[in-house]
Structure formats: structure tokens, C-alpha cells
Amino acid sequence: MAGLCEGGNEPSGSLKAICKWTLLFQLPPCEVRSVIKFLNVQGIAPIEIDRQLCQVYGPNVMSKQMGRSDVGPRLAGIYAKVGLPAAGQSGAHFYRYVDDTLVVWPHGEEKLQEFQEYLNNIHPNIQFTKEVEKDGCFPFLDILISRKSDGTLGHRVYRKPTHTDLYLNGHSHHHPAQKRTVLSTLLHRARGISDKESLPSEICHLRKTFLQNNFGNREIGLALRRAFSDKPPAEEQEETKGMAYIPFYGPISGKISRMLRKHGIKTIHKPPTKIQNLLRPVKDDLGLRTPGVYRIPCECGKCYIGQTGRTIMERCKEHQRSIRLYYPDKSAVAQHSLETGHKIDFSATTILDKTSGYWDLVIKEAIEIQLDGNNFNRDGVYS
Question: Where's the Helix-turn-helix domain (predicted)?
């Protein structure tokens, strides 16, 4: 990407189209063999095939434990480089980031469509989709690439149409260092992405955005001087004996931080608890598809109280299976039902507490058993 945008010059050859390809990938167990066959048909030497496979898949390419998620995006490079000569095309430029590839195509849109069909016909599990430039502009990641009147390429920061320019508010109850990071991060991005022509307008836009988010002119000015200063930041040489993580509560936190700094302890300020963390999340109820402590009633009035680190629904199915297969030793519920002939009402199973930690489950189960004396849990067994 840097090679394409640096200096605003286009790659050699006549520039016909800029597009983005996204790789849709699903790796079956025989994928390595399929890639080897494909490269072998192209006449590539075995040693070169081995080198490319090791470069993409890693040194343990023949291991059965090779992961799937790490392989797909990097196959784009091999398929594009090998596919170009095979399709009779050359001169295209590829700039890949994960599963997105920026392509500078000099052969026209018809040839581009043919080349995409060629790549998608190589293997049914490796498919590419494409987006083509529109009105001389093309967004790739957070960069907007545009054609200039002289034929060169310009680049500036890209924002989606739905972008709201809302960031951490300058009046919010956060440590000043965290607020300064918002300004420095956006200014650093503007300096790194924008070309000379678009940088002034980007800085003007950021100034307006910072003011809308209640940052002061002094804070903005200091952030601009830091961002565009060629002087490297001074490094702290203080010896740190330890670190302390404390919530931020205005001036009090600053005083505590200065006291700890005298003793060589670095302070990390955490934001305080938000109202959002205190409210119950607005999501669909998972029902019994959650770990925790549960209660299963019987028609006789007694109940069973248990706990599981898996889902309660899965554990109830195991109790039902033990009853059906006559396994009283594997389940206290099955033992009670088989010995008394009572019907267990699994449909009335309730959740007493949602938790997943081992000791939390054991302790809370024991407490619930003691609180509810009318149960048929086994003595001394809490599972």
C-alpha cells in the first residue's frame, strides 16, 4: 500500500482500474494437496512449491494440526501471482492486507471480470469478490484513493457515510492522558495517511471535530504541536518497582499517583464503573443455555439442586439419559426416579444462579442445598 501511495505516483503501465478483492475462504482437510496439484500443473519446480507452501502455511505444513483460520487470507498472494501468467495477463499490482487485496489493473474491466472468473474456477472453496472504483475514487481500509487531474493518485483519510465523528468527550470523567490519546491518535492517522494536498483540510476537519467533542483550544494546540514536532518524545528513565491499578476519581487520583511515584510505583488509572455496567444487558434470554446452579423439581414435592460449568440444558439431558438407560449411579435425579417411580418435571427446571467459575459453582450449590432442606441430593455430594 505504501508503494502505491507514496509520492502520489501510479505504478508503471497504463492505469485502467482500481479495485478491491475480498477472499472468501473455507479450508477442507485436503487443501494442501489441492494447492500442490495446482502449482504442479503450472510447471513450478518442487523446491519452489515447498518454499511457497512453507511461507504461507508455516514450516509444519504437513502437520494435521495446521490451523484453518490463519491460512485463507495468505493464499491470495499465491493464487494471484500464479494465476496472472496462467491467464495470459501481466502488469497488475497487488497490495494485500489480511483478506482484502488492492489491485491496480491495467487491462480494462472486461479482462478483470475474466480474470476473476478464472481465479474462482480454480477451486470451489476459494472464491473472490470485487469492488471497483467509482467516480475516480476508491476506499481501501481507512484510505480514500483518488485520481488527480494529472493522472497521479492522491490519498486521504476515508470515513464511511454513517460516521458520526463522536469520540471520547472532553468533559467526560476520564484521566487526562486518556483524553490526550484521542487527539494524538487521530492526528497521527491524518499525518500518516493524507497527502500534502489533503492534509490541511483533514486538520481543519479534526479541529472542528475536537471542538464538537468539548476539547479546548489549548488541548488541541498542544496535541497539534506534539503530532507535527520532529523532536522525539523524552523517555522516562525512572526506575519502576511496581505498578498500581486504581480507578480515576479526579484530583484525588492525581495526589495518590504522585505519592506512589515517589516510591517508584507507576500508577495506571482505570475508568470508574459506568451506569451501563450496572444495568442488565438488553439481550435475548438464553434460557437454560448457560452454566450455573439449577433446580429440578419432582412430582413428590422434593427437588434436586445441581451445578454445571457447561450449559444447564446439556446437564438436564444427561439426567434424562441416565433415567432412560437405568444408570442410577451416574445421577442423583435418576436414582430418585428409578427407586421411587416418581416423574421428574424437567420442563420446570429453574436457574438459581448464573456463574461459570468452579469454586463459585461449588460454593453456591452448597449454599442452595442448605437453604432448601426438601431435596433429594446425595449426602456429601455436590454435583
Answer: 166-218
The distance in angstroms from the start CA to the end CA of the chain is 57
Write the pLDDT tens digit of every residue in 129-187: 888 888 888 888 888 988 888 878 889 999 998 999 999 999 888 888 889 999 999 99
CA distance 360 to 308: 11
Phi first, then psi, for residue 304 (nearest 5°) are -115, 135
How far is residue 100's CA from residue 73's CA, in Å, rounded to a whole number? Answer: 8
* 122 φ/ψ angles, rounded to the nearest 5 degrees: -70, -45
Q: What is residue 314's predicted lDDT score, i.e. its pLDDT?
A: 92
- Strand-pair category, 303-308 with 93-97: unpaired
Residue with cell 472486461: 110
Residue 184 CB-density burial (10 A; 0-12 exposed, 13-18 middle, 19+ buried):
middle
Cell numbers at 205, concatenated: 476537519
CA distance 227 to 190: 10
Q: Which residue has the cell 496462467?
A: 86
The dihedral built from the CA positions of residue 115, 107, 152 and 94, taken in this order, carries a sign that is positive
Grid cell 433446580 is found at 295
Report the distance separating Cα 109 and Cα 101, nearest Å: 17
Q: What angle do CA 16, 21, 24 make, to 5 degrees?
A: 160
Question: What φ, ψ does residue 281 adopt, rounded to 5°?
Answer: -65, 140
Query: What's the CA angle centered on 181, arms 175 and 183, to 5 degrees?
Result: 115
- Angle at the Cα of 267 from the Cα atoms of 261 and 268, rounded to 5 degrees: 165
269 beta partners: 246
266 DSSP β-pair partners:
243
Question: How would you class 205 by CB atoms within 10 Å of its CB: exposed for 0-12, middle for 13-18, buried for 19 or more?
Answer: middle
Query: Rounded to whole angstroms, how far apart are CA atoms 361 and 15?
Result: 64
Burial category of 187 from C-beta neighbours within 10 Å (exposed 0-12, middle 13-18, buried 19 and up): buried
For the whole prediction, is pTM greater than 0.70?
A: no
Find, among 310, 296, 294, the residue nearest to 358 by Cα: 310
Q: Letter for the amino acid at 344? A: I
pLDDT tens digits, one per residue of 32-76: 667 777 777 777 776 677 677 776 666 555 443 343 334 445 555
Among residues 348, 302, 346, 352, the alpha carbon closest in space to that of 324 is found at 346
